[in-house]
Amino acid sequence: MKKSLVAVSVIVVLGAAWTGVSWYTGKLIEQHMDEEVAAANTQLQTAFPKAGLKVSYQDYHRGLFSSKLRIVLQPDAAAATAGTSALKTGDEIAFIETIDHGPFPAAQLKKFNLIPSMASVHSELQNTPTLKPLFDVTKGRSLITADSRVSYSGASSSAIDIIPVTYQKEDSQLQFSGGTVNVDVDKELTAMKLKSNIDSVAITSKNQWGQLEKVTLSGFDMDSDTQQGKFQVGVGDQNLNVKQILVNVDGKDAVSLENFKLVSKFSENGNNIGGQQDYTLDALKIQGADFGSAKLSLKLDKLDGAALKQFADNYNQQSRALLMQQGELDPQVYQQQAADLVLANLPLLLKGNPSISIAPLSWKNSKGESTFNLQLDLKDPSATPAQTQDQMLSQLVSKIDAKLSIPLPMATEVTTQVAKLEGYTGDDATKLAQQQVQGIAAMGQMFKLTTVKDDTISSSFSYADNQVDLNGQKMTLQEFAGLFGIFGGSVAQPQTEAPAPLAPPVAPVPAQ
């Protein structure tokens, strides 16, 4: 009897303690809501200063073990009056938040997660008038739901579900399989781990020729482990995979990209940021014909961290301002101004004397592999302003090494495939391809841009200290400029007689 009494007493004490801690946790969360909303608005203003939006919370109801509230995104009053807000007056995008208080939130206990937490939060979109068209598409369901666990340290872990959607309007259709996103974020929102997966997305619409075109992306997944470095620039690792991108026109497969992958790794080293991105594509198929595989390894080094941060801030702020004017500008004017923004801020990226390496860019098919390799070392131009165009190159570039290799059988195979797409068949396609490749090879030799040896078109170019080496022919930068009419120089005649290009015979007529 005494043992039973002790057991009951322990349960009562633990229950009372749990109730008290849960009540205190709920009160603590409520007390910090203003602080969290203010931080969210600061981040929103920093990221989208021209959006004219603000975040608020409404209808907070705190209970003993759980609380409910609405998180609302709406136009800022001043921006709405001026007509510069992304939302109109009276519009709102709202999330319904259900918060289970710690230390053992009920939502986590249901998952047998016994790790003490400050709260577990379930979030879903509310069907407001602003979002009614979206809820019509999803048949009254929230497109996005999220379940998050918030630790006492302030870090959070979220599992986000996006439901499947099918939307049809006239000849256009969206088919979305749904997806998942898992995110872990630290208290300061400076470190994040993310994993996402989408089975398929298909968009069908009529193209400019009135054909029904369907683009399908399948097998998409991404994971990243990134953090803000000391310059507030994101560094870390990222991986992206797409199993297939398929373009279908009027019921026939036109283009297929198979197994595209991206691996990215960036890190800090003192005041510099550097890293590498590797791209691979297992196969490109056009109308069923296999055009081969590709890969690219791109390495960036010695990017000045502070200058990169300033470049990003300047470009983001200016591009957002330009985006707000997009509807008022001619498309060509808009594109030109967007390009000008990059060029205007580009000198900032040269501050650390960065280097760019491509090793290699390759294209491979059943007949061989073509490769291009580049090492480009750049310089900060601010120290010695250029007076002439040729001085500008020496002011910006410290060193260039470039090599190109194209096996003739590989090039012929690619060109044969292109000829078949144009209607040529059998020997006609092969003969036409051989003529075109031989003509290009001879022309490259005539202008001393390439050489042909061992059935391979090759080219090498190097530059340093105002000296150029083109396929073994050494010259000054000014002589090189004159040879090819660069920087307004006159075109010099080749010093030695080059082989004349093969005169291509009359092209075969495509088979009917």
TrEMBL record:
Pfam family membership, one: DUF945
InterPro entries linked: DUF945
Top-level division of the source organism's lineage: Bacteria
Protein's name according to its UniProt entry: DUF945 family protein
Organism: Rahnella inusitata
